[in-house]
Amino acid sequence: MKTAKQCERYFKGAANHCRIDILVLVSKNPDMTVEGIADTLGKNIKTVSEHTRRLVHAGLLNKKYQGRHVIHSLSPYGKRFVPFIKSFLHS
Fold first, then answer.
1. Is the pTM above the cut of 0.70?
2. What CATH number did the domain enclosing 71 receive?
3. From CA 69, how far away is CA 56, in angstroms rounded?
4. Is 4 helix (H, G, I), strand (E, B) or coil?
5. 90 domain residue, yes or no
6. What is the DSSP letter of 63?
7. How far apart are CA 3 and CA 31, in angstroms?
8. pLDDT at 1 over 80
9. Is residue 91 one of the residues assigned to a domain?
Protein backbone atom coordinates (compact mmCIF):
# COMPACT_ATOMS: atom_id res chain seq x y z
CA MET A 1 0.00 0.00 0.00
CA LYS A 2 1.25 3.47 -0.90
CA THR A 3 1.72 6.19 1.67
CA ALA A 4 -0.08 9.52 1.35
CA LYS A 5 3.26 11.14 0.44
CA GLN A 6 3.82 8.67 -2.42
CA CYS A 7 0.30 9.27 -3.73
CA GLU A 8 0.90 13.01 -3.57
CA ARG A 9 3.91 12.60 -5.89
CA TYR A 10 1.76 10.96 -8.57
CA PHE A 11 -1.06 13.48 -8.28
CA LYS A 12 1.31 16.46 -8.40
CA GLY A 13 3.09 14.91 -11.37
CA ALA A 14 -0.17 14.74 -13.33
CA ALA A 15 -1.56 18.05 -12.04
CA ASN A 16 -1.52 19.86 -15.39
CA HIS A 17 -3.79 19.52 -18.42
CA CYS A 18 -0.81 19.16 -20.77
CA ARG A 19 0.68 16.36 -18.65
CA ILE A 20 -2.68 14.58 -18.62
CA ASP A 21 -2.78 14.82 -22.43
CA ILE A 22 0.76 13.41 -22.61
CA LEU A 23 -0.07 10.48 -20.33
CA VAL A 24 -3.20 9.57 -22.30
CA LEU A 25 -1.35 9.91 -25.62
CA VAL A 26 1.60 7.76 -24.52
CA SER A 27 -0.82 5.14 -23.18
CA LYS A 28 -2.33 4.84 -26.68
CA ASN A 29 1.01 5.14 -28.53
CA PRO A 30 3.86 3.69 -26.47
CA ASP A 31 7.49 4.51 -27.28
CA MET A 32 6.93 8.09 -28.42
CA THR A 33 9.64 10.70 -28.74
CA VAL A 34 9.29 14.26 -27.44
CA GLU A 35 9.06 15.42 -31.05
CA GLY A 36 6.26 12.94 -31.76
CA ILE A 37 4.35 13.99 -28.66
CA ALA A 38 4.77 17.69 -29.51
CA ASP A 39 3.65 17.18 -33.12
CA THR A 40 0.61 15.11 -32.15
CA LEU A 41 -0.53 17.54 -29.44
CA GLY A 42 0.42 20.67 -31.40
CA LYS A 43 2.63 21.95 -28.58
CA ASN A 44 6.12 23.46 -28.41
CA ILE A 45 8.93 20.88 -28.04
CA LYS A 46 10.46 22.73 -25.07
CA THR A 47 7.10 22.73 -23.27
CA VAL A 48 6.57 19.03 -23.89
CA SER A 49 10.14 18.28 -22.84
CA GLU A 50 9.62 20.03 -19.50
CA HIS A 51 6.32 18.24 -18.89
CA THR A 52 7.77 14.82 -19.74
CA ARG A 53 10.69 15.56 -17.39
CA ARG A 54 8.23 16.22 -14.57
CA LEU A 55 6.26 13.06 -15.39
CA VAL A 56 9.47 11.00 -15.31
CA HIS A 57 10.40 12.61 -11.97
CA ALA A 58 6.93 11.75 -10.61
CA GLY A 59 7.40 8.11 -11.64
CA LEU A 60 4.60 8.08 -14.22
CA LEU A 61 6.75 7.91 -17.38
CA ASN A 62 9.89 5.99 -18.29
CA LYS A 63 12.47 7.30 -20.71
CA LYS A 64 14.94 5.37 -22.80
CA TYR A 65 17.71 6.87 -24.92
CA GLN A 66 18.06 5.78 -28.56
CA GLY A 67 20.83 7.78 -30.16
CA ARG A 68 19.74 11.42 -30.16
CA HIS A 69 16.13 10.53 -29.39
CA VAL A 70 14.48 9.92 -26.05
CA ILE A 71 11.69 7.36 -26.13
CA HIS A 72 8.90 7.70 -23.55
CA SER A 73 6.60 4.98 -22.27
CA LEU A 74 4.33 4.60 -19.27
CA SER A 75 5.88 3.29 -16.09
CA PRO A 76 4.08 0.53 -14.19
CA TYR A 77 2.51 3.22 -11.97
CA GLY A 78 1.64 5.28 -15.04
CA LYS A 79 -0.19 2.27 -16.46
CA ARG A 80 -2.31 2.14 -13.30
CA PHE A 81 -2.78 5.90 -13.12
CA VAL A 82 -4.03 6.50 -16.68
CA PRO A 83 -7.24 4.43 -16.28
CA PHE A 84 -7.92 6.46 -13.14
CA ILE A 85 -7.54 9.70 -15.16
CA LYS A 86 -9.70 8.32 -17.98
CA SER A 87 -12.48 7.50 -15.51
CA PHE A 88 -12.67 11.23 -14.71
CA LEU A 89 -12.44 12.28 -18.36
CA HIS A 90 -15.39 10.08 -19.35
CA SER A 91 -17.66 10.77 -16.38
1. yes
2. 1.10.10.10
3. 16
4. helix
5. no
6. E
7. 30
8. no
9. no
The angle subtended at Cα 89 by Cα 51 and Cα 76, nearest 5°, is: 55
Q: Is the dihedral of CA 73, 2, 21, 15 positive or negative?
A: negative
> For position 42, what pLDDT does the model report?
97
pLDDT tens for 41-66 read 999 999 999 999 999 999 999 999 99
Cα separations in angstroms, 75 against 26, 42, 57: 10, 24, 11
Cβ partners under 8 Å of residue 5, min gap 6? none
pLDDT of residue 38: 97
Q: Is residue 36 part of a domain?
A: yes
Complete edge-to-edge strand list for the sheet that includes strand 69-74? 32-33, 69-74, 61-66
Residue 67 confidence (pLDDT): 92
* Residue range of the domain that includes 28: 4-85
